[in-house]
Amino acid sequence: MKATIAVLPGDGIGPEVTAEGVKALQAVAHKFGHDFEFREGIIGGCSIDKMGTALPAETSALCQAADAVLLGAVGGPKWDDPNASVRPEQGLFAIRKEMGLFANLRPVTCHPKLANASTLRPEVLKGVDLLVVRELTGGLYFGEKKRGADSASDLLAYSGDEIRRVVRRAAEFARGRRKKLTSVDKANVLETSRLWRRVTEEVVRKEFPDVALEHILVDSCAMYLVRRPASFDVIVTENMFGDILTDEASVLAGSMGLLPSASLGVGKRGLYEPIHGSAPDIAGKGIANPFATILSAAMLLRHSLDLEAEAVAIEKAVYAVIDHGILPTDVAPAGSKPATTIEAGQAVVAAL
Fold first, then answer.
1. What is the span of the domain harbouring residue 242?
2. N or C, where is the chain less crowded by C-beta within 10 Å?
C-alpha cells in the first residue's frame, strides 16, 4: 500500500516523540511491505517564530493532500502571553476545523504492569477499557469571544447537526464494542446540554436500538471516572467537557505519556496525536515518553489506512516493551533505570 503521511512535530517534546512514531511506522512499512512517504510541516509556536502564524498555508495544504497527519504537540512558555494575538493552539484549532475533524477519539486502558503508576488502587483499575469521543469543532472553544476592560464572554453554541454527527460516530464505536454509550452533559443548567441530551436520545433510539444509552451530568462523570472507571464503555461529550475528562482519565493509565488520540471527520483522513502537551520543562532532555505517539500511529493505521493487522502489531509491540519493563521516566518504578525516549522507541521497533 502507498500512503502519504504529513508529520507536524510542533514544539517542546513534539519533535522527540514524533520521531519515534515515524520510526514505528517505517518499521511497519518494512515488515508488511507498504510504501509510506513522510512529509514534514510546521505548526504552533515554531511556526509563529518562522512565519508569523500558527498554521501556514503550506502546512494546511500539506495536511489536506495527505492520507493522514501525525502531530506532536504545540505551545510553550515562550508563547504563553494570554494577550498575544497569535498563539500556538490557534494552529491546532485551525487545522482541525479546516480538515473537518469533528470527532476526537481517546481510548483509555490500564496495562497491569503499570497499575502502580496510577494514584488509584489496582482493584479500581481492573478491567478499565473505555473510549471517549469528544466533539472537536464546536462549543466554547470556537464560539464568539468578547473581552472588555472588566468583563469577558465566550459563547457556548451547538447545532443539532453538530451533535448528531458526533453521537453517530460514538454509537458506531459502541456498537463494535460492548454496546454501551454514556452521554455526558450539564442538562440541569445549560440549554446547549438540554439540546445535546434530546438529540442524542433521538439518534440512539432511532438508529442504534441495540446500543444501551445512559445520560450522566459532567460532574458526576468526573467522580465516576475515578470511582468506577471500568463501568464505562464509550463516552460521548461536548468539546470542553471532553478535554477536561480525558485529562482526568489519564490518571487511570498512569500517565498522559501513554494515551493516544485520533481526530476524525466524515472520510478516512484524520489527525493523530498524543493527548499530552509540549512539556517544555523536559524538552531536549531525551526523557519524554514516546508510547502515546507510537500508539497514535497505530490509530492512524487503523482509522485512516484500514490496516488493522498493522495497527495491532504496533500495539502488541508497545505492550510487550512495557511487559519487559522498558519504561520511560514518567512510569518507571522508583529506583529503576528509566529508558530514554530513543531507547523506548527502539525497543518498540525491535519488538515489531
1. 119-136+162-253
2. N
272 is catalytic: no
Position 202: which residue type? E
35 is annotated as an active-site residue: no
* 233 carries an active-site annotation: no
Residue from 185, 243, 319, 330 carrying the catalytic annotation? 243
Residues 289 and 221 in one domain: no
Q: In the annotation, is 141 catalytic?
A: yes
Q: Nearest 5°: phi and psi at 36?
A: -105, 125
> Helix-strand-coil percent breakdown of the chain, rounded to 5?
45, 20, 35
Q: Are residues 168 and 260 in the same domain?
A: no
For residue 157, being part of any structural domain is answered with: no
Residue 114 DSSP label = G
Q: What is the CATH number of the domain that holds 189?
A: 3.40.50
pLDDT digits (tens, 9 = 90+) for 10-63: 999 999 999 999 999 999 999 999 999 999 999 999 999 999 999 999 999 999
- Residue 243 falls in the annotated catalytic set: yes
Each residue's pLDDT tens digit, 78-112: 998 878 889 999 999 999 999 999 999 999 998 88
